[in-house]
Design goal:
The chain has 16 helices and eight strands. The longest helix has 22 residues.
Length: 398
DNA sequence: CCTCCACAGGAAGCGCAGGAGT
DNA sequence: ACTCCTGCGCTTCCTGTGGAGG
């Protein structure tokens, strides 16, 4: 059967030669393109605000808000990069941008230690008091002697957990510094986030504000077309594919990241199937794959009882009309698996966590005489949830 | 108009793990 | 060896609340 083996190798090689991509990195959401369509106004405004950097002066703090996938992060990174290049050309680079994603670094301690680390300091991942880490930060900023532009992306994720005290201290730190200076760019996708802040923080953080409205389907099409021309081989994108991706993503609040992911994975699907043109059916498969990937990634990080609660909802047909019913079911399932159930209060928090993770939709409802409760419903396909839970259980060896 | 349901969700704190400084 | 710090998952106790039914 040596001829069979040779055939497989040859076939596989032939397939991988038939790629639809020229450069798939262009479609990744962390790629910063040379051109950001439909964000000219935001780019101009941010550049204006940050322009004092070139004169070695501290720019105003900026507050940026807009929904996910509206280009906030891309614009900030793009502008900072360009200013940096420009500053180097004119021989003035006394500023240092530091980018932090507060969803990943969601505590005061972790934000501060990441800051110190990006300035070349060292901090253990636990063990010090925050006051000590803050002191080290000041030392580092003083040592650079320039202006540190701190970008706090998804700032709401952190403030929701640990409050806004760190923002207060960061926006005031300049008063305690002799040489260096700090300015803060806060990015959030929670439009009402600003209202919940301490008034002192609000006024100092939003010396300037920039709003990023969602893209509509036409604008998304422009963005996709622009990227696709660099990402794919000519003629590798089938008719209507771009518009289909754009309108699918536009339905989900104009999220450009979604649209780009969809297009990239569709390309990967086409490639895998040995097709040299991306078609709409590939996009449909891509959509399912993306959802399933998102779910299993989230499920993996869930605490044990988080998985149990999710399982309870999935087994009950995907929804509960009261927290009480959910709790009874959850307790039953936990016990049957030999697990001591947690309190209802905790389950209530777990449901909120599942909601932030995008796995369920929870709505507070008032039923008058019959009390106030929460309706919970799965936000994704029930079978995908069950499959992810099963995979995860198997991975844990049980 | 008042009551009172069935919770939501805030506040405080606990025990443990991981680690620093002394 | 000892004290002190944080994050995490969790409990206990608590106050707040929109509206159906009286």
């Amino acid at each position: 059967m040596s001829s069979g083996t040779r055939d497989i190798v040859a076939e596989t090689l032939l397939k991988s030669e038939k790629t639809v991509f020229m450069n798939r990195e262009v479609l990744r959401s962390d790629y910063i393109p040379e051109y950001l369509p439909h964000r000219e106004e935001q780019i101009r405004k941010l550049t204006e605000v940050l322009s004092p950097l070139l004169r070695g002066e501290r720019p105003s703090n900026v507050f940026i808000y807009g929904l996910t996938g509206t280009g906030k992060t891309a614009v900030v990174k793009y502008v900072l990069k360009r200013i940096n290049e420009y500053a180097k050309r004119v021989g003035n680079n006394m500023f240092l941008p530091v980018y932090i994603n507060c969803r990943h670094e969601s505590t005061t301690y972790r934000v501060l230690s990441t800051l110190v680390e990006s300035l070349g300091g060292k901090v253990p991942f636990t063990g010090l008091s925050t006051a000590e880490v803050f002191r080290r930060l000041k030392v580092k900023v003083n040592m650079t002697g320039g202006i540190v532009v701190i970008v706090l992306d998804e700032i709401d994720a952190m403030v929701k957990r640990v409050g806004d005290e760190i923002l207060y201290r960061l926006t005031r730190v300049n008063e305690e510094l002799e040489r260096g200076k700090v300015s803060v760019i806060g990015i959030t996708n929670d439009v009402r986030f600003r209202d919940g802040l301490d008034p002192r923080v609000r006024s100092s953080l939003s010396e300037e504000e920039i709003l990023f409205p969602p893209y509509d389907a036409l604008q998304l099409s422009d963005i996709l077309r622009d990227r696709a021309s660099k990402a794919f081989r000519p003629d590798a994108v089938g008719e209507g594919v771009i518009d289909y991706c754009a309108s699918t993503a536009a339905r989900e609040h104009g999220d450009a990241r979604r649209a780009l992911d969809l297009l990239r994975v569709a390309g990967e699907v086409a490639e895998r199937l040995g097709d040299n043109v991306v078609r709409i059916e590939h996009v449909k498969i891509a959509r399912e794959e993306l959802e399933s990937d998102m779910v299993s990634a989230v499920v993996k990080t869930l605490p044990q009882h988080g998985k149990m609660v999710l399982l309870s909802i999935a087994l009950a047909g995907g929804r509960f009309s009261t927290t009480g019913e959910l709790y009874i079911k959850y307790r039953e399932i936990s016990r049957s698996l030999g697990l001591e159930p947690v309190t209802q209060r905790r389950v209530s928090d777990i449901v909120s966590e599942l909601e932030t993770a995008g796995l369920v939709i929870a709505k507070v409802v008032n039923r008058g005489r019959y009390g106030k409760t929460k309706e919970v419903e799965l936000a994704v396909d029930r079978n995908i949830i069950i499959k992810s839970l099963r995979d995860e259980a198997r991975a844990l060896g049980k």
